[in-house]
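Two folds, back to back.
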Amino acid sequence: MNTNRYELTYIVPTKYAEDELGGVIAQVRELVAKHGGKVTFEDNLGKKRLAYPIKQATIGYYLMAHFDLDPANLKALNRDLRLSSDVLRHLVAKRSEVVHKVAPAPVTTAATQATQEVRKQEEQSQAKLADLDRKLDELLTKDII
């Protein structure tokens, strides 16, 4: 049996509470299994605002699943996902086998950004005070001589 690795991203409407998503996730898992696939990974990406309303929904839960499936069955799976009333939109993409190692990006939160900004302002004010002290010393030494 020839299988490919796929990634499924789908949106569930917020008519379900977050603890009720398990039923929809199980339904999608069953659809994949019905077509001969096997889910290898699942993740809840959280609740997000949609770019535009879909079936009168403006907010949805974004969910992701990785699965292995025979390419001949992909069209039928897409059809069943499109017909599901619990899935607003879905996207299936073929996953590549190449693993890219990416260095983690430095984490900058609003608090660290604010701290960095305060430090910059303090350094600037200290530089201004040092310039002011130097000028005062020059003026005072000129008056004495």
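---
second:
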Amino acid sequence: MSNRVVKYSRILRALGIVIAMFTVLPGNWGNPAALANSPSAMTFCYQDKELFPNYMGEQNTKIANKPGINIELVDQIALNLNLNVQYVRYSWNRCLALLKASRVDSLIASYNEDRAEYAVYPVTGNGLDIEKRINTLGYYMYHTAGSPVWNGEGLIDTTTMVAAPLGYSVVKILRDLGINVVETSSPEDTLKLLLHKRVDAIAVPGTTADALIRADITKYSDIKKDPIPITQRDYFIVFSRKFSDLNPVLTKAIWQQTSSVRTTYRQQLIDKYYNP
């Protein structure tokens, strides 16, 4: 074989490799060259307690049927990007610890300064990019008293003992106000403490507590919800620093997808879960 034939053969082989690389790239993430080495999988951690309607089931694996609104949104993002998401479920505090240690890649969380030391949030020049949020959640005060315990700025009676789920952002908010907070393992456990009069009030996500109360209205008939939220929190898909550093283009692509998927699908999913 002549040198010229060998030369052309090598050129064609190299060209074929390049074409193959572009053919198998997962999804339209932007610059193909920048994403050629991106991972095909991402590990996502979420709670093993049901938090209706965002996370469903009380187990350590994702349930197949109606796994929760947040999980279905992540599934849609993964489908759009041809990304394989491996779901793992642990307690909330363990998910945070695993993210900090880069043993999982991602989870959904609201912003606080402590988490921002190890979790990567979407930001703009002015701070958090709220357009990249996956949802917004309100925390409310529930109690058995005859009148409201929360006035929108603080407790009406400062001696009120409040329970809240361990590691939730509302705990810091209340403690910064000087409120005595007892932490529990889940929103359901806070309701149990309130039902047995171990605390005077509980601070929990409104959608979750409302669903628990509605599921057993006789049991929780004496529990009342104050109309003014304690806080409204935006929630984001966040990443470990290691994952974000290794995959900056993919990280941004997921946030971009989060914005469009939320606006396109979230209301449909709310209707699905609230009107089965």
